[in-house]
Amino acid sequence: MVTVNGQEEDVAGQTVIDFLKKRNVPIENIVVERNGDIVHRAQFDKVKLESGDKVELISFVGGG
């Protein structure tokens, strides 16, 4: 299990990009933190989520 924004999810083994696509997350507006480290967009297709990981998804929203 992987903890995503405080909730356990069964997504271990997925790459970050696959995980985001399944959630329909707009990749250009998201920051992914895995175990306290930022995952750079260029690494989204290389980094696999592992059981025990803690992931935070931070999205940017424009407005005024």
Would you spell out the secondary-structure blueprint of this structure?
Elements: E1 2-4, E2 7-9, H1 16-22, E3 30-34, E4 37-39, E5 54-59
Parallel strand pairs: 1-5
Antiparallel strand pairs: 1-2, 3-4, 3-5
Characterize the structure shown.
The chain has 64 residues and is mainly β. It has one domain (2-59): Beta-grasp domain (Ubiquitin-like (UB roll), Roll). Helix content is 11%, strand content 31%. The chain contains one helix and five strands. The longest helix is centred in the N-terminal third of the chain and has 7 residues, at 16-22. It is globular, with a radius of gyration of 11 Å. The model has no long low-confidence stretch (mean pLDDT 94). It holds the Pfam family ThiS. InterPro entries: Beta-grasp_dom_sf (IPR012675), Mopterin_synth/thiamin_S_b (IPR016155), Thi_S (IPR010035), ThiS/MoaD-like (IPR003749).
What does this entry show, briefly?
This is Thiamine biosynthesis protein ThiS. This protein has one helix at residues 16-22; strands spanning 2-4, 7-9, 30-34, 37-39, 54-59.
Which features characterize this protein?
64 residues; mainly beta; Ubiquitin-like (UB roll); 5-stranded mixed β-sheet; 11% helix; 31% strand; globular; Thi_S; ThiS/MoaD-like; Mopterin_synth/thiamin_S_b; Thiamine biosynthesis protein ThiS
- What would the average pLDDT be, to the nearest integer? 94
H-E order: EEHEEE
Compute the number of strand runs.
Answer: 5
Strand content: 25-35%
- Helical content class: 10-25%
